[in-house]
Design brief:
This protein has 10 helices and 2 strands. The chain is mainly alpha-helical and 254 residues long. A two-stranded parallel sheet has the order 1-2. It is elongated.
Amino acid sequence: MRRWHPERTVQLAADGSDPNSAALILGEVSQIIRQHAQQAAGFIPAVSVEQRAWFNPNLDDRWFFVPGIMANVIFISTMMLTAMLVVREREAGTLERLMVTPVGRLEFLVGKMIPVTCVGLFDALMIAAVAVAWFGVPFRGHLLELIAASLLLLASTQGLGLLVSSYAKTQQQAMLTASFFIMPMMVLSGFAFPILNMPQGIQWLTWLDPLRYYLVIIRDLFLKGSGVIEHLFEYSTMALLGVAALALSVLRVR
């Protein structure tokens, strides 16, 4: 029998930005420590495990879900608005009039995207203010980084929305088609279900979801204060996806 040293202590520190995972990990590690102490002492010792969660000391679920809701609101609203832009012009009969004017295709798309971009940024700033003032979620990052990440997400959502708008014939068809893309992308983003718990093939599909990277950035901006350097991969991937979506929309819209 090995000698039991009651003076030994173990510190457990978990990343509280994901409270569900942190609580699960702390519980499992605490149980392992107690089992190991029992085996080492030969009896059930009085083991006291003190737990600490970084960035979210109380493991408050609101601090995790409110930034995620913010990302989904921006994603859904801007994609729906963009998907109906060209269709509305076509149904009203003004699209043909615009096409015979000196306005170029790129100028036409930029003119449609600027108002939606303003709406998306307004939503981001308003929800961030409500999250801090009403729900008590701390914002430890910089406002410019929040705006930059939101602009990269808007590039992808508006590119996809314009693609949907170029194929749809009516506004109802555009809304249904946009919903067909929105729901899978929300599921694959990791908002409600952890990506690591998904099948391997589904995990590969999540790499094409810009909402996945925005959720990582926005949650860390609120809770950790992480900047562009810490999330250079996420910013770069969102930029590539946004450029690809906008390029396809420019080629498709005639």
